[in-house]
Structure formats: structure tokens, C-alpha cells
User: Fold these one by one.
Assistant:
Number 1:
Amino acid sequence: MASGWQWDDTLFSGTAAYYRRGRLPYAPGLADALTEALGLDGRGRLLDVGCGPGTIALRLAHAFAEIVGLDPDGGMIAEARRGAAEQGVAEKAVWVQARAEDLPAGLGTFTVVAFAQSFHWMDRDLVAWAARGMLRPGGALAHLSDLKTEDRSVAGLPHPPVPYAAMDELVRRYLGPVRRAGRGVLPQGTPGGEAAVFARAGLLGPERLVVPGGQALERTDDDVVAGVFSMSFSAPHLFGPRRRAFESDLRDLLRATSPSGRFAERAPSTEVFLWRAEPTGR
């Protein structure tokens, strides 16, 4: 986690109801890429650490006999259960409300332990060591995120692009110039350097996969508003009694950008780093 910042249980408070609608999807070929790279065959177990509403666990449910999602936020766990029921995989899904720092938490061993845009919120050295010890022979730790280095061109899209810069400025007008995170702030943002953390934990690798995105996504103004309220730095509770005023200003901004209430952007590519507890011979 970031230096000088302490986790607290308000970090994603109130965001769960917006998460599935508001967040951009992972690249459509992700499940196939992981299945090929890891030899997934419908058996084995997946642990999704910091699972949120179960995004990755549910995306990969068909590739495992059991999926386990762990998250400290009760709202996220409730959304994950709802998603598993809707997808028809509730019988193979286990959802645990706990912090990653509580691992191994009696959960057993896993074929894959996944961190999907969640690892930076954790006591990373502690959690990496715990995760390594939970890997089955031949298992892998997967660290997933949007590819940060690509230029997602808006050329040729059928609707105006989402006005991210103006939206960020609006958030700063309401919440101040320093990024908020729960009851604290992140003046330097969240930490990087995951490779050094995993190497210190004795993991070998990484093997890098880039699953291409680039598909045109059409989004409504409600989708964009949900995306804003799904973020830790603009979680609904941070606005206090000014939440309604913020949402009104946000919708005015979106309406000025696209009177039709429709937007378009390119889906991000997904970057995956695979780490193992033992040599693979590959």
C-alpha cells in the first residue's frame, strides 16, 4: 500500500452498486489467453483476491471447478453473490468477506491466485508471501491490469468521447486537489513496482501477456456516472451532503459534451503478469 496511508473500511464504501455498470471491461480474449497460458481445463481452484463484485472470478468460472473471491467490502461480496446467481455458477462459487492480509484464512491451496487491479491497496509483501504459499504445484499467481501505455484513439467513434479530464477537474473542485482514499489521501498516488515485491516473495517470472482491446464501446450518461461513483477517489460517501450537487454538475457536464447522452471509447487492452512458485520448464 502507499507509504503513509492506512487502509480503512470506507475505501470502496457505497461503490459496489455502481461497479459492474460503470467499470470498463477487461479485454474479451482474456479467458482464452489465460486458459492457453496456464493449461486451464475446468478443474482446479481460483482465488480472486480483492475480488470486488467478482469480475475476474466470474469471467473465469467456466475454467475452474471452484472459484473463491475475497474482498473486505460487504457490498462487493453481495454483488458478487448476485452475479454468480445470475450467471448460474453459484454452486461453484465461495465469497469471503475478509482482507487480503488475513490470508491464508483457512482457504486451502489454489491453481491460480489472481490480483486484478487490487494489489496496490494491500500490505504487498505480506500478501505476496501468503499467496505464494497457497499455490498448488504447477500453480500461478496472475497480476492483471489495464494496459497503461497504449493510446486509445477516439478517431472514428460514433459518439463523443467520455470527457475524462473535465470530469477529473470537477471531482477536484468538490474534493480538493489531493486524491482521496477512504479517510485518507494519496498525494503520490498508488504504488507500483509489483515485480520487485513478487520476486522478494520467492516467485519466479514473470511471463507477460497482453490481451488486445480496442473495441468500440458505447456508453450512456448513466454508465459514465456509475463509473465515477465506482472509483475509490470519487466514492459517493466522499461528497457527503454535496453528493446530489456533484451528480447534478456531472450530468450537466456530460449533457454539454453529448446532448444525446451517448458516448464512445475504446476498450483497454489487458496486461497480465504470471508468476510461479517453481520453474515451469517453458
Number 2:
Amino acid sequence: MPTKIERIFKSIDENAGSDIHKIVRKNCEETDVKGILSELERTCDEELVARIMKSCGRQCIPKSYITHTKTIYEKSDGIEDFLNELNKTRIGGGQLHLGNRKIIGIYDQCYCGLVNKLKGLSPLYCYCSAGWYEQLFSSVFDKQVEIEKIMTIPESADHCEFTINYQ
């Protein structure tokens, strides 16, 4: 599996094109996640940075998580039972629940080993988690789901929260 940095650069190339890819590589150290995000924010609009990071998150989730989650879903007695069983495994942060006919996903910390010690990281990085959730639940429900980033720790919240529209 490619490294997180390799996935970010691949996502930049696929979503923003080779010109932006070259600019970011030229202006940033290859291991500087904060610098890469800053350069993306300088050269791209928020929607494009979000698309880049979601793409990265979709690549990041292990296939074994998807397979295991599908098994849990197939054995569950409905969506609430599924989320309760999934929470026991801690896949998806361990705090998944229903609210307003959507799944609410909460992280009380960043689980990304590359960034969880960085201070002052751009909140746009958290679209990576949105992509991760998107890949997980789209695979499980066998249809495209929509993810909305509600709040994040880099935005001074005490947790990260996403809604997953699965219906």
C-alpha cells in the first residue's frame, strides 16, 4: 500500500492535474503534510482541496475493514444493531449512531498516524476522514453515500463529527 504522502500526491495529480502537482512538489518538502495542505489552500479552492483529500481517504481504508464491516452488516438486525456491533470493533471511531435518519460518525481524536501529533493542521485535511467514511459505507450499502463534515478538532471542536447520508 502506498504511503499517505504518496496517496496525497496521487490524489492531487488525479483531481487537480499535473500543473498543481508540480507546484506543490516544488514548493513543499515531500514529508511536510502541513506545508502540502497550505500550498493546496494557496493554489486551489476549498472544493478542490476537499475532493483531493476525500480521494486520499478512499484509498486509505484497508480492504479488511470493508470486508469485516460487510459481514457485520449482513448479520445485523437493522441499522441500529449494525452500528452497535460496528462500535464494538471501533471501526469508524466507535461512536456511530443514528440522528435525523443519517449515521453520525464521531472521532474523539485523529486516528491518522501521520498527522495526529501535528498542531495547527488545516481543517481541510479532515476531508480525508470524509472520504474514508464514504468508501466504507458506500461499499457496505453497495451504493454511493454522501458525507458531510460537521465539525473537527482542527476547527477547535472537542471532537470530529460527520454525517453519513446512506438513504
